Amino acid sequence: MKDDLFSQLYENIKKIGLTKWIMLGIAGVLLIASSYLKKDEVNENKARYSQYEEKNTFNQKYEYKDEIEKEVEELVKNIKGVNKAKVMITLKSSEERIVKEDNEVVVENDERETNKTGKESKKNNTVIVDGENGEQPYVVKELYPQVEGVAVCIKGNFDSEIKNNIISIIQALFDIESHKISVSEMK
Fold first, then answer.
1. What is the four-CA torsion angle of 110, 125, 34, 28, rounded to 10 degrees?
2. pLDDT tens-digit series, residues 54-69
3. Other Cβ atoms closer than 10 A to 166
Protein backbone atom coordinates (compact mmCIF):
# COMPACT_ATOMS: atom_id res chain seq x y z
CA MET A 1 0.00 0.00 0.00
CA LYS A 2 2.80 2.42 0.89
CA ASP A 3 4.67 1.47 -2.27
CA ASP A 4 1.50 2.15 -4.26
CA LEU A 5 1.13 5.61 -2.64
CA PHE A 6 4.75 6.53 -3.33
CA SER A 7 4.55 5.32 -6.89
CA GLN A 8 1.43 7.44 -7.50
CA LEU A 9 3.19 10.47 -6.00
CA TYR A 10 6.22 9.83 -8.19
CA GLU A 11 4.03 9.57 -11.28
CA ASN A 12 2.28 12.88 -10.42
CA ILE A 13 5.64 14.61 -10.02
CA LYS A 14 6.73 13.28 -13.41
CA LYS A 15 3.51 14.55 -15.02
CA ILE A 16 4.00 18.10 -13.71
CA GLY A 17 7.71 18.09 -14.40
CA LEU A 18 10.71 18.40 -12.12
CA THR A 19 11.59 21.96 -13.23
CA LYS A 20 8.11 23.21 -12.35
CA TRP A 21 8.39 21.64 -8.87
CA ILE A 22 11.80 23.27 -8.37
CA MET A 23 10.42 26.64 -9.48
CA LEU A 24 7.46 26.20 -7.12
CA GLY A 25 9.86 25.46 -4.25
CA ILE A 26 11.98 28.54 -5.03
CA ALA A 27 8.84 30.71 -5.17
CA GLY A 28 7.81 29.41 -1.74
CA VAL A 29 11.22 30.19 -0.28
CA LEU A 30 11.10 33.71 -1.78
CA LEU A 31 7.66 34.35 -0.29
CA ILE A 32 8.84 33.33 3.14
CA ALA A 33 12.00 35.45 2.82
CA SER A 34 10.04 38.51 1.65
CA SER A 35 7.79 38.35 4.70
CA TYR A 36 10.86 38.63 6.93
CA LEU A 37 12.21 41.54 4.88
CA LYS A 38 8.93 43.45 5.30
CA LYS A 39 9.11 43.06 9.10
CA ASP A 40 12.67 44.43 9.09
CA GLU A 41 11.54 47.42 6.99
CA VAL A 42 8.70 48.21 9.43
CA ASN A 43 11.09 47.95 12.40
CA GLU A 44 13.57 50.21 10.58
CA ASN A 45 10.84 52.83 10.01
CA LYS A 46 9.87 52.73 13.68
CA ALA A 47 13.51 53.09 14.74
CA ARG A 48 13.98 56.03 12.35
CA TYR A 49 10.84 57.70 13.73
CA SER A 50 11.94 57.29 17.36
CA GLN A 51 15.34 58.84 16.53
CA TYR A 52 13.55 61.78 14.89
CA GLU A 53 11.38 62.22 17.99
CA GLU A 54 14.33 62.06 20.43
CA LYS A 55 16.30 64.73 18.54
CA ASN A 56 13.49 67.24 18.32
CA THR A 57 11.43 66.81 21.50
CA PHE A 58 14.01 67.98 24.05
CA ASN A 59 14.93 71.24 22.31
CA GLN A 60 11.39 72.08 21.24
CA LYS A 61 10.04 71.70 24.78
CA TYR A 62 12.47 74.27 26.14
CA GLU A 63 12.11 76.60 23.15
CA TYR A 64 8.33 76.58 23.64
CA LYS A 65 8.72 77.13 27.40
CA ASP A 66 11.12 80.07 26.89
CA GLU A 67 8.82 81.61 24.28
CA ILE A 68 5.71 81.57 26.44
CA GLU A 69 7.65 82.78 29.49
CA LYS A 70 8.81 85.84 27.53
CA GLU A 71 5.29 86.51 26.23
CA VAL A 72 3.75 86.30 29.73
CA GLU A 73 6.55 88.47 31.11
CA GLU A 74 5.82 91.18 28.52
CA LEU A 75 2.11 90.96 29.26
CA VAL A 76 2.65 91.33 33.03
CA LYS A 77 5.03 94.29 32.49
CA ASN A 78 2.18 96.09 30.69
CA ILE A 79 -0.08 95.95 33.75
CA LYS A 80 -0.45 99.36 35.40
CA GLY A 81 1.76 99.52 38.50
CA VAL A 82 4.25 96.81 37.40
CA ASN A 83 7.72 98.10 36.50
CA LYS A 84 9.58 94.82 36.09
CA ALA A 85 8.57 91.15 35.91
CA LYS A 86 10.19 87.73 35.82
CA VAL A 87 8.16 84.62 34.90
CA MET A 88 8.90 80.92 35.28
CA ILE A 89 6.63 78.23 33.83
CA THR A 90 6.61 74.48 34.44
CA LEU A 91 5.19 72.07 31.88
CA LYS A 92 3.37 68.78 32.51
CA SER A 93 4.83 66.93 29.55
CA SER A 94 6.67 67.40 26.32
CA GLU A 95 5.17 68.09 22.91
CA GLU A 96 3.27 65.18 21.42
CA ARG A 97 3.00 64.35 17.74
CA ILE A 98 0.30 62.10 16.39
CA VAL A 99 1.43 60.39 13.21
CA LYS A 100 -0.57 58.93 10.34
CA GLU A 101 -0.78 55.16 10.32
CA ASP A 102 -2.10 52.80 7.69
CA ASN A 103 -4.33 50.29 9.45
CA GLU A 104 -5.05 46.98 7.81
CA VAL A 105 -7.58 44.56 9.31
CA VAL A 106 -7.82 41.04 7.93
CA VAL A 107 -10.77 38.86 8.95
CA GLU A 108 -10.64 35.15 8.24
CA ASN A 109 -14.03 33.48 8.45
CA ASP A 110 -14.46 29.79 9.06
CA GLU A 111 -16.76 28.57 6.30
CA ARG A 112 -17.88 25.49 8.25
CA GLU A 113 -19.25 27.45 11.22
CA THR A 114 -21.61 30.28 10.31
CA ASN A 115 -22.17 31.60 13.83
CA LYS A 116 -18.50 32.49 14.52
CA THR A 117 -16.69 35.42 12.96
CA GLY A 118 -13.27 33.81 12.74
CA LYS A 119 -9.84 35.29 13.32
CA GLU A 120 -9.03 38.97 13.03
CA SER A 121 -5.52 40.36 12.62
CA LYS A 122 -4.42 43.99 12.54
CA LYS A 123 -1.36 45.68 11.03
CA ASN A 124 -0.29 49.27 11.72
CA ASN A 125 2.33 50.89 9.51
CA THR A 126 3.58 54.44 10.09
CA VAL A 127 3.30 56.61 6.96
CA ILE A 128 6.74 57.97 6.02
CA VAL A 129 7.20 61.02 3.76
CA ASP A 130 10.22 62.83 2.35
CA GLY A 131 10.81 65.96 4.42
CA GLU A 132 13.44 68.66 4.76
CA ASN A 133 15.73 66.37 6.77
CA GLY A 134 15.14 63.15 4.83
CA GLU A 135 12.40 60.68 5.54
CA GLN A 136 10.07 61.58 8.41
CA PRO A 137 6.75 60.31 9.72
CA TYR A 138 3.66 62.11 8.42
CA VAL A 139 2.42 64.18 11.40
CA VAL A 140 -1.37 64.56 11.55
CA LYS A 141 -1.59 66.60 14.74
CA GLU A 142 0.82 68.33 17.14
CA LEU A 143 -0.15 68.83 20.77
CA TYR A 144 1.79 71.44 22.68
CA PRO A 145 2.83 70.78 26.28
CA GLN A 146 0.34 71.75 28.97
CA VAL A 147 1.32 74.36 31.53
CA GLU A 148 1.36 72.94 35.03
CA GLY A 149 2.35 75.96 37.09
CA VAL A 150 3.43 79.61 36.84
CA ALA A 151 5.57 81.72 39.16
CA VAL A 152 5.68 85.50 38.68
CA CYS A 153 7.94 87.97 40.48
CA ILE A 154 7.10 91.66 40.02
CA LYS A 155 8.66 94.95 41.00
CA GLY A 156 6.51 98.01 41.42
CA ASN A 157 3.26 98.68 43.20
CA PHE A 158 2.57 95.28 44.82
CA ASP A 159 -0.99 95.13 46.10
CA SER A 160 -3.79 92.55 46.09
CA GLU A 161 -5.53 94.09 43.05
CA ILE A 162 -2.44 93.72 40.84
CA LYS A 163 -1.81 90.22 42.20
CA ASN A 164 -5.41 89.18 41.41
CA ASN A 165 -5.16 90.71 37.91
CA ILE A 166 -2.00 88.70 37.18
CA ILE A 167 -3.61 85.48 38.48
CA SER A 168 -6.73 86.12 36.35
CA ILE A 169 -4.67 86.73 33.21
CA ILE A 170 -2.62 83.55 33.70
CA GLN A 171 -5.75 81.49 34.41
CA ALA A 172 -7.33 82.76 31.21
CA LEU A 173 -4.21 82.01 29.16
CA PHE A 174 -3.40 78.52 30.41
CA ASP A 175 -6.60 77.19 32.01
CA ILE A 176 -4.90 76.31 35.30
CA GLU A 177 -6.18 76.63 38.84
CA SER A 178 -5.22 79.62 40.98
CA HIS A 179 -3.33 77.53 43.53
CA LYS A 180 -0.86 76.64 40.76
CA ILE A 181 -0.02 80.33 40.22
CA SER A 182 2.32 82.20 42.51
CA VAL A 183 2.77 85.98 42.41
CA SER A 184 5.49 87.50 44.59
CA GLU A 185 7.29 90.80 45.01
CA MET A 186 10.91 91.16 43.85
CA LYS A 187 13.50 92.25 46.36
1. 10
2. 555 566 677 888 999 9
3. 23
